[in-house]
Amino acid sequence: MAKQPELKTQKTLWQNGLTFAGSIGWLGVFVYILFIFPDLPDRVPIHFNINGMVDSWGYKGFIWVLPVIGIAVWGALTIMEKAPQHFDYLVTITEENAARQYKNAVMLISVLKTEIMAYFVFTTWQINNIAIGKMSAKSVWDVPLFLTVIFGTLGIFMYRMLKLK
């Protein structure tokens, strides 16, 4: 296997905007939890069935689990963004196309990070609203919509990768 060229990629204004929005989202969800935590009941939903109904409850401290997992995923993806030369591509990476391909790959990671953050923040908000009785269930469309967005994004960027060959 040939070694792919190593190039420094500069983040675009759009990528910096996504990173900023994601950072605000994560900060916002942690501040939100700090404010609502004292008023949460002792039990919060921790699992939902396919119909969006709560099928498992846990200690209210579990409200922190999803944001903490999300931050870990965000951090891992942020580290990955810095080394696009180590990604697998659908096309052969050459000196001629490396800059285009790396820019596309880094943009993909930026978009995915933001989509994941939005889903985790929204789900945390839903968990709180169910716990305090404002909602009775999650929508059955939450997970299918999230997966459609994620796989749609992957499809769009894979198509772009082939076009940028």
UniProtKB/TrEMBL annotation:
Assigned keywords, A-Z: Membrane, Transmembrane, Transmembrane helix
Source organism of this protein record: Rossellomorea oryzaecorticis
Name of the featured protein: DUF1648 domain-containing protein
Residues annotated as transmembrane: 12-37, 57-77, 105-125, 145-162
Pfam entry (one): DUF1648
Residue span, DUF1648 domain: 27-71
Keyword Membrane included in the entry's annotation: yes
